[in-house]
Amino acid sequence: MEPERERALVDRCRREEPGAFEELVNQYKNLVFALIARTVSDRSRAEDLAQDVFLRIHRGLPYFRGDARLSTWIYRIVINVCTQDKGSARPAVSLDDPDARVATPSTIDRRFGDLELRDRLEKAIQQLPAQYRLLIAAHYLEGVQYEDLAEAMSLPLGTVKTQLHRAKRQLRQLLEGDLR
Amino acid sequence: MTCADLADLIDPIAAGDLTPDAAVSAHLAACPSCARTLDAARRIETLLRARLVPSAPSQFTMRVVNRVHRASWRREQIVDGIFNIAMIAAALLVAVGLVFALRRTGLSILTTDAMNVFSAGMLTAAQKVVPSLPLYAGATGLIVVALGVWWWASDSAAL
């Protein structure tokens, strides 16, 4: 969304124009939901958290100065909601689920192996610290730049890149056996 | 270049953030372990790029707007409650202040006399009304019956 349109929408929301806040929700709901649903494995929990994000946006709109872009401010709220979520503690998911080990990628079709690997990747992502999970979730969403994340997390660009690489290294270590 | 030197470069290379220079390329060509690690990092990169993008449920906007309305209503209730408590506290403060002021200025004696006169007046009025009470009760009864009949009639007509 262009900055001009963003500002106009924020102004309309502040004036409590009918339909303005609905428009804002419609504009950002998929981004917010995708970010959270990729971070929290439980879909209904993800929806609750996504709703919390929009409640905070509604409460915060009168104080939004517009120094940062609206999308950056929204990322920041998503980050806060996800890191404060008590239910986001790392689940005790074992990557060495014996059922998942029955067939090894070397003995089965590669495509099925990738499906299995994808499932194990999701489990491995849930094992990462909240900040790393968010970085992984956000970075691979279309249109999300390193710069947006750095601004939302109030971190230098280099630190964001380093953390993202560290997150991926941890993922690689968690999936070591599966990638051989 | 050693394997340890390359360890920090594997993920940036796999992500395309870093282009391997001659030394890195030479090490990768000579070291099967690092080449495997880079291959694994590239597979993870591909899988991460191919991750599903979950969409918000269809009723999401409506549910958010409902929650916003409920939250606003709750906030208004809290503000109303605080306002009511503040008003009661202020009224009590004024009453206590008034009593205190009356006592200090000696006007409380006058107030007591005024209360006595008021009570005596009320007693006299009650004594005058008591003999006519049956009449008032009868009139009230008639009005209640008339209202009841009217209500019953209008209710029946509606049916």
Give a verbal description of the structure:
The complex is a heterodimer of chains A (180) and B (159). Chain A has 180 residues and is mainly α. Chain A is 66% helix and 0% strand. Chain A has 2 domains: 3-88, RNA polymerase sigma factor, region 2, helix turn helix motif (Rna Polymerase Sigma Factor, Chain: A, Orthogonal Bundle); 98-179, Winged helix-like DNA-binding domain superfamily/Winged helix DNA-binding domain (Arc Repressor Mutant, subunit A, Orthogonal Bundle), CATH 1.10.10. Chain A has helices at residues 3-14, 20-39, 43-60, 70-84, 110-126, 130-139, 146-153, 157-174. In chain A, helix 1 (3-14) crosses helix 2 (20-39), helix 2 (20-39) crosses helix 3 and helix 6 (130-139) crosses helix 8. Chain A is elongated and about 55 Å long. With 159 residues, chain B is mainly alpha-helical. Chain B folds into 2 domains: 3-49, no CATH class; 60-130, no CATH class. Helix content of chain B is 84%, strand content 0%. Chain B has 7 helices and no strands. The longest helix of chain B is centred in the middle third of the chain and has 46 residues, at 60-105. The A-B interface holds A 21-22, 25-26, 29-30, 32-34, 37-38, 43, 46-47, 50-51, 54-55, 58-59, 114, 117-118, 121, 136, 140-142, 161, 164-165, 168-169, 171-172, 175-176, 179-180 and B 8, 10-12, 14-15, 17, 36-37, 39-41, 43-45, 47-51, 53-57, 60-61, 63-65, 67-68, 71.
Topology:
The complex is a heterodimer of chains A (180) and B (159).
Chain A (H helix, E strand, L loop, with lengths): L2 H12 L5 H20 L3 H18 L9 H15 L25 H17 L3 H10 L6 H8 L3 H18 L6
Helix pairs in contact in A: 1-2, 2-3, 2-4, 2-6, 3-4, 4-7, 6-8, 7-8
Chain B lengths: L2 H5 L2 H6 L6 H9 L1 H18 L10 H46 L1 H23 L3 H26 L1
Helix pairs in contact in B: 3-4, 5-6
